[in-house]
């Protein structure tokens, strides 16, 4: 009887402790159709995971959760699957025993009101209130843009310009408020977002004001994880580029063991910058496993996580990563900044001597195999020049810059009547490439030379690569001047147009 009583008391105690950790979120909204799915995301660093969902019924929704170990949960409430909602979320800060009430009268979710006893939420609300009118207009424009599937690009640009103007005004108001408030968790989050705008938005108008706010931080605040990210945003480190020595730092595995990239010199090194919240990063893992096995004698893959330590540990336990899985524990403030990573997945191929060979971002099926075949399997060639009467042949000319590794210049043949480029293409088997009919050569004096014809490919049409993923074709242009020492190949000024600059016709 005493044992049973003790067990019951213990059980009641556990329930009491659990209840003390709970918080509730109750929603009462108007102007939102019944059945709308509401998702609650728990944020860890810059990554969020879905922790609960509910459907709106009679204008209400409800969540009950236990608070995390830190005692403060950063949450996002989203309805992004709905066409009449903006692709934005409502920020909620939750703590044990908090009863949080969410109210709204429309689908402008970012500015739904949050009534909460949590001090971080109250401070966050001040920032919303100071720009509520602007945020409402920003959301209306976002909804309008979301529905403009068949709109002209000029119309889309006009919407984006209006949103940029509103964002600028919001930054101005938030800066003024921050100048009046003491430094706090929310204040630091706002400074982080301002610093991100200063880094990535060339039209950002308030960098000096943001730096002035940053200078209010003490050494401890600057050395925090958030402070380090703000520092590299406002004062970016020197970024390495192709041809440079690789950047290195202290790296740790999941057991806390120290590593350095120099440990892997002697092999090619493939750096994989990733995060557990990045879909393409996860999609690339099976292919990464294949190339790790295929090139295991020559290649070391090093995956570098930008997640918080806890999220990196949790994600790694769910993923099969048979290669080096490391982190500098600085999220985006360490090697990510030194390698200039702006989007993930991001990859860097490093030579056995520690030189950066190639840097690229994004993943599509087969692209990693393509890169490895292109740079690990392709034979290395030296430039050679042959003179035969009035004909000059340059084999494998040196190129100063190219924005594509799809094509390689095998040979340039210069005669009195034509300039012939013999090219080799490397791409995913059975995928297509295309040469623009507007492609031209431009010599060092700025003179242009138009395309006359092509052999092995039809300009302006899709050319599908064979099973080998390799193909050769020729482009014939008007003859370059005999005095030409370098020229460039250009398709145009669009983002995906080929640009191969500084093709040298001398050694």
From TrEMBL:
SUPFAM superfamilies recorded: Thioredoxin-like
Protein name, entry field: TlpA disulfide reductase family protein
Highest taxon listed in the record's lineage: Bacteria
Subcellular localization: Cell envelope
Listed PANTHER family: THIOL:DISULFIDE INTERCHANGE PROTEIN DSBE
Gene source species: Bacteroides vicugnae
Domain Thioredoxin: 240-381
Gene3D superfamilies, per database record: Glutaredoxin (3.40.30.10)
Main location: other
Keywords: Cytochrome c-type biogenesis, Disulfide bond, Redox-active center
């Amino acid at each position: 009887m005493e044992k049973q009583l003790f067990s019951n008391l213990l059980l009641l105690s556990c329930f009491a402790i659990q209840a003390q950790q709970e918080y509730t979120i109750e929603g009462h909204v108007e102007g939102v159709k019944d059945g709308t799915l509401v998702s609650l995301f728990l944020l860890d660093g810059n990554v969020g995971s879905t922790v609960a969902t509910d459907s709106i019924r009679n204008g209400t929704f409800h969540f009950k959760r236990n608070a995390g170990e830190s005692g403060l949960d950063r949450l996002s409430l989203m309805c992004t699957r709905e066409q009449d909602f903006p692709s934005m979320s409502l920020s909620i800060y939750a703590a044990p025993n908090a009863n949080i009430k969410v109210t709204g009268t429309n689908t402008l979710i970012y500015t739904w009101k949050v009534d909460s006893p949590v001090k971080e939420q109250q401070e966050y609300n001040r920032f919303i209130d100071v720009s509520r009118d602007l945020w409402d207009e920003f959301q209306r424009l976002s909804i309008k843009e979301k529905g403009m599937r068949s709109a002209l690009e000029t119309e889309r640009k006009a919407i984006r310009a209006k949103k940029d103007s509103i964002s600028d005004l919001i930054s101005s108001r938030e800066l003024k408020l921050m100048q009046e408030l003491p430094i706090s968790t929310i204040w630091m989050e706002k400074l982080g977002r301002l610093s991100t705008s200063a880094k990535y938005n060339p039209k950002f108008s308030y960098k000096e004001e943001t730096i002035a706010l940053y200078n209010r931080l003490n050494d401890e605040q600057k050395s925090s994880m958030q402070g380090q990210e703000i520092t590299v945003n406002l004062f970016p480190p020197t970024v390495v580029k192709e041809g440079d020595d690789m950047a290195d730092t202290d790296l740790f595995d999941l057991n806390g063991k120290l590593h350095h990239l120099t440990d892997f010199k002697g092999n090619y090194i493939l750096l994989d910058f990733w995060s557990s919240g990045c879909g393409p990063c996860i999609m690339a893992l099976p292919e990464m496993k294949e190339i790790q096995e295929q090139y295991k004698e020559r290649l070391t893959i090093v995956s570098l996580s930008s997640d918080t330590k806890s999220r990196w540990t949790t994600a790694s336990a769910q993923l099969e990563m048979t290669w080096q899985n490391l982190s500098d524990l600085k999220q985006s403030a360490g090697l990510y900044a030194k390698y200039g990573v702006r989007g993930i997945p991001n990859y860097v191929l490093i030579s056995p001597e520690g030189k950066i060979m190639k840097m690229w971002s994004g993943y599509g099926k087969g692209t990693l195999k393509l890169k490895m075949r292109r740079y690990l399997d392709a034979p290395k060639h030296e430039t050679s020049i042959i003179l035969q009467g009035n004909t000059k042949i340059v084999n494998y000319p040196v190129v100063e810059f190219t924005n594509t590794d799809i094509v390689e210049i095998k040979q340039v043949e210069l005669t009195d009547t034509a300039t012939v480029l013999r090219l080799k293409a490397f791409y995913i088997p059975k995928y297509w490439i295309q040469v623009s009919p507007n492609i031209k050569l431009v010599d060092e004096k700025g003179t242009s030379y138009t395309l006359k014809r092509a052999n092995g490919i039809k300009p302006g049409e899709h050319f599908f690569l064979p099973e080998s993923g390799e193909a050769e074709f020729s482009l014939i242009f008007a003859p370059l001047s005999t005095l030409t020492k370098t020229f460039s190949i250009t398709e145009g000024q669009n983002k995906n147009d080929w640009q191969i600059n500084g093709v040298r016709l001398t050694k």
